[in-house]
Write a structure and sequence with these properties.
Layout (H helix, E strand, L loop, with lengths): L16 E3 L4 E3 L12 E11 L6 E7 L2 E4 L8 E3 L12 E3 L8 E12 L4 E15 L6 H48 L2
Parallel strand pairs: 1-9
Antiparallel strand pairs: 2-7, 3-4, 3-8, 4-5, 6-7, 8-9
Length: 189
């Protein structure tokens, strides 16, 4: 008999660099602390362009309806978050990133937790500083892992060469010792 599995929730930060002309997934996760308590949430995304002071309301999700609000993002935004009323992932996908999309994005969860005594309203805000670049930069973890891979390959090859040389010397010494032992026997009349 297998028991039912309940998935967990982990709050992971969004990446902060997008490539112009490509799509980009803006992640925003707000885990509910008690899974057994029912809740309902809505998610709003706001955008503040680089050098501006005001945020623009650009996207709203209230299950099952997703709505792009600002004309700069019309036809380019897609909801990729939780597709039920108790939203924990407020991820959106922006198609065809432009340099004008550089700036600060604010994700706001408005969650109502339904308790026996009374309902509790909770607001969570997360910010993402996004840069749009012409060519993607490699992340430091990618560079370090590639470097470690090459170092490991080099070390293993050197170790293999040392083992082969050691085995060759051992076999050569045994052969010479056997030849030296057999040489006096062949010289005796």
């Amino acid at each position: 008999m297998l028991s039912q599995c309940h998935g967990g929730c982990s709050e992971v930060d969004s990446l902060t660099e997008a490539v112009a002309g490509e799509g980009f997934s803006l992640k925003c996760i707000s885990c509910k602390k008690r899974e057994e308590v029912s809740a309902r949430a809505t998610v709003d995304w706001h955008f503040k362009p680089l050098g501006e002071k005001q945020y623009w309301h650009i996207f709203h999700y209230d299950h099952p309806r997703a709505e792009t609000i600002h004309e700069q993002f019309n036809g380019r935004m897609e909801w990729q978050g939780t597709k039920k009323s108790d939203i924990q992932s407020g991820t959106i996908y922006i198609h065809n990133m432009t340099f004008n999309d550089t700036g600060t994005y604010r994700c706001t969860f408005q969650r109502t937790i339904f308790l026996v005594q009374n309902d509790v309203h909770h607001i969570v805000e997360k910010h993402v500083e996004l840069s749009v670049v012409k060519v993607a930069n490699r992340e430091i973890t990618s560079l370090i892992s590639e470097l470690m891979m090459y170092v490991l390959i080099l070390v293993l090859q050197l170790w293999l060469i040392l083992v082969l040389v050691s085995c060759y010397k051992k076999i050569s010494n045994e052969y010479e010792a056997r030849e030296a032992k057999l040489a006096p026997m062949s010289l005796t009349p």
